[in-house]
Amino acid sequence: MNNEFPPAEAMGLVNLASPRMGTEIHSVSDDFFAEAPRMLADTVPVFVPDKFDDHGKWMDGWESRRRRHGGHDWCILHLGETGTIRLVDVNTAHFTGNYPPGAMLEAAYCPDGDIGKADWKTVIGETKLGPDAHHLLTAHDVGPVNIVRLNIYPDGGIARLRLFGDVQRDWSGLGDTPVELSALRSGGCILGYNDAHYGDVNALISEGRGQTMGDGWETRRRREPGHDWIVVRLGATGLISDIEVDTAHFKGNYPDRCSLQAALIEGEVDLDAAENWPELMGEKSLSADNIHKFNHADLNDVGPINVVRLNIFPDGGVSRLRLFGKVVT
To answer: Residue range 242-247: average pLDDT?
Structure first.
């Protein structure tokens, strides 16, 4: 299955519903036909014509049985990271005669995880849904939340639910302790890139090492002069002390070299101007399937930064990028 790219409107936001963020299904009213966790998968939903299981037609998403006695179905998510939801995508891909005619989204903040205490607030009011389509909806600002309830009316199937927003993290009290500022779960996000033909750009700043060659950022084979790049916004402004560039599983297609540029920018980031940012790290050679570690001796003093551009020469794949440093408030 191919990994899914976010819509242009969501660039610079994090999918808070992603398993990469630690998000899980808390409870569900019914998922007889298709188990609810499939709805969160970081992949493009697929349709397999001849695939059936003991409950009927296998569907790539969450699907409840047909209701016969009133009411409606729901699914509750526990977000891995507290965040503010900005944009919602309810995707009914491949659900044609079995999609819900309507949906509504509520959310709450429960610091102790006790949903019984939830003060539910409406993020998306009841909205009509159509078959086999993305429904991109602007969210009401209800502040930071960590519990979300998707209601569908009355029953049916949702292929994917995306909750694009901002991670809300308390960076106070760290002192000089270095932290991973680029991490997706810390609020790091991809702002743009020149090419991402293969893989998943969000994998680049995810936890752990890549599991396969598809679990990372990879560009097409470059047939013209130049090099490829990707821009990452850090979860917090910081002074960088250590960097890791991991080429896990990239053996015949790792970049020959890489470099990093960085800046401190308030407001909107001009991706075209990024090629002129100061050089945080000059070109360094890379090798196949290896974690490359760089420290103070390899880095230039560019001061506090909140955005970086990873350049790879000339093309290829990088599994993970990690920038560690001290938070500057």
So the answer is: 98
Q: What tens digit of pLDDT does each residue of 290-310 get?
A: 999 999 999 999 999 999 999
Q: Are both 153 and 277 inside the same structural domain? A: no
Query: What is the domain-level CATH number for residue 282?
Result: 2.60.120.260
Instruction: Quote the domain boundaries for residue 210.
Output: 179-327
Could you tell me if 3 and 44 are in contact, meaning their C-beta atoms sit under 8 angstroms apart? yes
Q: Identify whether the C-beta of residue 107 lies closer than 8 Å to the C-beta of residue 123.
A: yes
- Beta 157-158 vs 317-318: how paired, if at all? unpaired
What's the domain count of the chain? 2
Same domain, 222 and 322: yes
